[in-house]
Amino acid sequence: MMQTPDRYLMAAPRMPPDEAERLRLLESLDLHGSEAEEVFDRVTRLVSRLLKVPIALFSLVGDKRQYFKSRVGVEVRDMPREHAFCGHAILQDQPLVVSDAASDPRFADNPLVTGAAGIRFYAGVPIRTSGGLAIGTLCALGQQVRVLTADELCILIDLADIVQQEVQYRERLALAGRQKLRSAKVLNASEARFRSIFDLASIGIALVSPGGGWISVNGALCAILGYSQEELQRLSFQDITHSDDLDSDVDLLEHLRLGEIEQYQMEKRYIRKDGRPVWVNLNVSKKLNEAGEVEYYISVAKDIQAQKETQADLTAVYAELEERVAVRTRELREREAELRSVIENANDAYIGLDQEGLVTVWNRAAEQTFGYDAPEAIGRPVDELIIPPGYAGRHRAGLSRNVGGGPSTLLGKRLELPAVRKDGSTLMVEVRINALEMRGQKVFSAFLHDISERKQAEALREYESRHDMLTGLLNRRALLETLPIAQARAARTKRSMALLFIDLDGFKLVNDTFGHEAGDRLLCEVAARLGAVVRSTDSVFRLAGDEFTVLVEGLAACEDDAHTVAAKAIEELGRQFKVNGGVAQVGASVGIALFAPDSRASVDDLLREADGHMYDAKRAGKGQVFPRRA
């Protein structure tokens, strides 16, 4: 049995940065002063049996002392905080595993190690609140030096998660209770203000007559019970309380009426209007009149049906685990098989790596994602399998840095990275990598999810935002993004550029004569012809309707070259178009804005100048280019 030592030789662990807030929340949960509870005792029994340790604890780290909410193999209920291994464990993001406390400088002089208790092995997982504050640990201790396997650590983490869910559930209940108390104070202060809270509260609130009838109910309670307010006011709480819970509720209400208690809280079942039972956490207090008699009861009901179903599932899990421990003798083999099954059947690819970067685990989803069978992949460096050549060097450097204890930019984060399949095709994956120290060596686990389709959809949306959907040409947004880049390039290369503003002549007649569908086909043909007359380094844009622009870069003789391109465009667009079995004739008017390398013209200046010259060309008789060639 663990004895509390009289002497303490080593320095206590440092305090967490959020110590004051952590202690306030621990106090509000009222766990360390309460009696033992089976929901926690089951877990510590499982820790002791599954990990084969003599001591298992659910500990709460207070201001000066460590309290044992649940314990196996320990007589005392608390001990000084400065002796506690758990004081170190709550400072960590990951589980704390001490294989040999006598050789660990943090614990070598600890009285629990040097004294009669003779502790050598410790493994603890922090128990956190909903806000991430560590209030204690689920831990296992033993008198023998021991290396915890990965499977055993997973078991301890899973059981700690059960304890943590229960603690967070208690936390939510405490919050609901505080909400109820605040509602009661509001009622005394201001009836109008209370009515607002009463009606808008997210939990069920009711005023109940001394005889059990519903005086007033809020919308949340109606939603829980499935009745309207009018329907409930024709009933009493006895009418819709589950028969198995009615006596307890009535008995507590009588104690409340007689003043033997100030309020009571219970979990009970109501029968909904549709006949289904629903579990609620009920808190009842009373409002007295001036004569000291009960005027009405205030009932606050929180729907806990989902929690009850979860608890039932957890109870089944507990029973299954205890039965498995009792009737099976080959626990390790079965646990390994279960873990392999979970990994093997995961939806995401799972890859395990040793500290050399060699694959140790390759599940079925990894086979399907990357094309390698598990026997092909296991034992090979992962950078030879799925990492693109350009990333292999960075992968190896990061692996070496992580193994050496250096800072990591990858671990514990969701990253989007390229990968390669066996057939050489590429894909994008979302990667989540974690590290774990086992037997003095680091191992890595990675979950990879294929996001290629999502990335393709994003690329398509980006394409559609920058392209005209009718012609496939770049659109106005793309032009406004491209022009500043082209201006900077012109200044850097000392080569001029030109912006051609093209408007079709006679396009409205085509629409009126042949219809808008034929007009759309003609616009597509215009786009194709413009693409054919420009160089591969030039860009064609459709602004709107029958307006197009051409960006011509790298001009040697700026004005002459721009006029040559404009003339080709007018000539090409002047040829007849075949539409609906007939022919259509359009032309083009072109305005040119020139940009020299030393020009200070803005994007708006260029567009305004090219547009103005296009209208000059229109007024000059169409089929023209402005300004005219010098």
* Whole-angstrom Rg: 38 Å
Question: Percent of residues in helical segments?
Answer: 40-55%
**Main sheet makeup:** 6 strands, antiparallel
Termini separation (Å)? 105 Å
Overall number of domains: 4
Write a structural description.
The protein is of the alpha+beta class. It has four domains: 19-169, GAF domain (Beta-Lactamase, 2-Layer Sandwich), CATH 3.30.450; 190-303, PAS domain (Beta-Lactamase); 345-454, 2-Layer Sandwich (Beta-Lactamase), CATH 3.30.450; 467-626, Reverse transcriptase/Diguanylate cyclase domain (Alpha-Beta Plaits, 2-Layer Sandwich). It contains 22 helices and 23 strands. A six-stranded antiparallel sheet has the order 3-2-1-6-5-4. Strands 8-7-11-10-9 form a five-stranded antiparallel sheet, with helices on both faces. The protein is extended. The model is unreliable at 1-9 (pLDDT under 50).
Short description:
It contains 22 helices and 23 strands. The chain has 630 residues and is α+β, with helices and mostly antiparallel strands.
Give the helices and strands, then pairings:
Blueprint: H1 19-29, H2 38-51, E1 55-61, E2 65-72, E3 78-80, H3 86-89, E4 96-98, H4 111-114, E5 121-128, E6 134-142, H5 150-189, H6 191-200, E7 204-208, E8 214-217, H7 219-225, H8 229-232, H9 237-240, H10 243-257, E9 263-271, E10 277-288, E11 294-303, H11 305-327, H12 331-344, E12 349-353, E13 359-362, H13 364-370, H14 374-377, H15 382-385, H16 389-403, E14 414-420, E15 426-438, E16 441-450, H17 452-466, H18 476-493, E17 496-505, H19 507-514, H20 516-533, E18 539-544, E19 547-555, H21 558-574, E20 577-579, E21 582-584, E22 587-595, H22 603-619, E23 625-626
Parallel strand pairs: 22-23
Antiparallel strand pairs: 1-2, 1-6, 2-3, 4-5, 5-6, 7-8, 7-11, 9-10, 10-11, 12-13, 12-16, 14-15, 15-16, 17-19, 17-22, 18-19, 20-21
Helix pairs in contact: 2-5, 2-11, 5-6, 19-20, 20-21
